[in-house]
From TrEMBL:
One of its GO terms (molecular function) is succinate-semialdehyde dehydrogenase (NAD+) activity. InterPro entries: Ald_DH/histidinol_DH, Ald_DH_C, Ald_DH_CS_GLU, Ald_DH_N, Aldehyde_DH_dom, Aldehyde_DH_Superfamily, Succ_semiAld_DH. The keyword Oxidoreductase applies. Keywords: Oxidoreductase. GO terms for cellular component: cytoplasm. It comes from Moelleriella libera RCEF 2490. It catalyses: succinate semialdehyde + NADP(+) + H2O = succinate + NADPH + 2 H(+); succinate semialdehyde + NAD(+) + H2O = succinate + NADH + 2 H(+). Its EC number is 1.2.1.16. The lineage of its organism: Eukaryota, Fungi, Dikarya, Ascomycota, Pezizomycotina. The active site is at E280. This is Succinate-semialdehyde dehydrogenase. The keyword Oxidoreductase applies.
Amino acid sequence: MTQQPSCPKSSKVPSPQNRHWSSSLKDPSLFKQDVAYINGEWRPAKSGRTFKVDDPSTSDLVGTCAECDAQDARAAIQAAADAFPAFRTLTGRERAKLLRKWYDLMVENAEDIAKLITWENGKPVAEAKGEVAYAANFFEWFSEEAPRTYGDTIPATVPGNRVWTVKEPVGVCGLITPWNFPAAMITRKVAPALAAGCAVVCKVPAETPFTALAVAELGHRAGIPKGVVNIVTTLENTPEIGELLTTDPVIKKVSFTGSTGVGKLLMKQSSGTLKKLSMELGGNAPFIVFDDADLDLAVAGAIACKFRGTGQTCVCANRLYVQEGIYDEFVQKVTEKVNAFKVGNGFDEATTHGPLIHDRAIAKVEAHIKDAKSKGGKIVAGGEKLSKLGANFFQPTVIRDMTPDMAMATEETFGPVAGVFPFKTEAEVVKMANQVEVGLAGYFFSRDLQRVYRVAEALEVGMVGVNTGIISDPAAPFGGVKESGFGREGSKYGIAEYQITKTITYGGMGKPLQS
Ligand code: SIN
């Protein structure tokens, strides 16, 4: 993706390429170019500027997008503030019906949304379809939670008082989402916010804005009242809009998914107005295979977990620890599977794994491989750029004989590199697994029930996968500990992030009646 500082009006006419892309959608009107969604309307940026979004597979232009700045974001915040008083008074059941309708429209338009994801993110269409289903399920789940936001009746300590609590929406929320799940990371935040009765301003990633805008269009069609959902797009003004969302006193809550570094900055900025926060930050997931594991299950889990999204998810395995007794066999089986991958354009049906998002992602992968090689790691699969396919393709890679002094032992790679570390004992591997500052997900494979409890309890992470490499589920709480952040998304806990608990004390009831 490249910045286009001042896009002349004429460039807003779609190029033949663009016409081709959007016209291949069943509903081309889902492809929204050069406009943000503010107060229920599609508007160009006030400055008239746009930026380009490129296909990570071909580096061709996907389209141009409104380069919003603080003026646009302020208009979006104002729209949300104006919409909030009426929206919060809808009953949970009324909000549930809106979310359910949005879910239905996501399902009806799944193919088009999946195409948009593949164009701008690069993931294979089959995987993109899986993401659309995952994304839609947050609308379904929270449509079911919206009518069930109970308070408590509390026995008072003070004689004559009555105490009860009610759940109220926190207010206008600023949501900042990443490019690796262009649809699901939006719905995972927007759905609980709306279920709680909040209005939102969503700053979507510059790499994948078109999916977000299409999801917003479906929300519009579902009848979400104007101003309740606002989407601002930007490349260049990302820091400015991030600062506004974290400092404007109208915003009462910020939810961010992204890197730990940016999360810390946003948290600092939010401190001036003490906003409620949810931070879904970076991971560095340990993936442990004990000698007693079902080896084939562990291999399948490793492949699914490590290479999902070409290694670009926060919950991807980053460090594979395999016990000595099965180390060689595990490495051999994983290598065979990786060698069978078909890397390519996500629209090619044979493709199992797409490109990385941009050249910075490639650079990090290369740096981690170089570091591992220089310290004795042996590459048994991949290891090279796939330049003949395009600028952002990299061979899925397996490295054996990894050691704790290598960068991958402590830093997240966010790419298709499986570094396999040998270990001897349970105590040793748990110590290594916990020796990082982050703690999002962790996985292990074992058939020993006592070990399952012991290790699950000992891992310093927010989510543990036991005998599975895939843990994402709208019904299950998603979130981390340590520097992976705080707050939980999805599940029965997700809505609480967008609510306050108000205590009401009714005094002076006098003495109770005695029968
Ligand atoms: C993420 O990478 O942040 C989300 C992964 C998931 O929801 O499975």
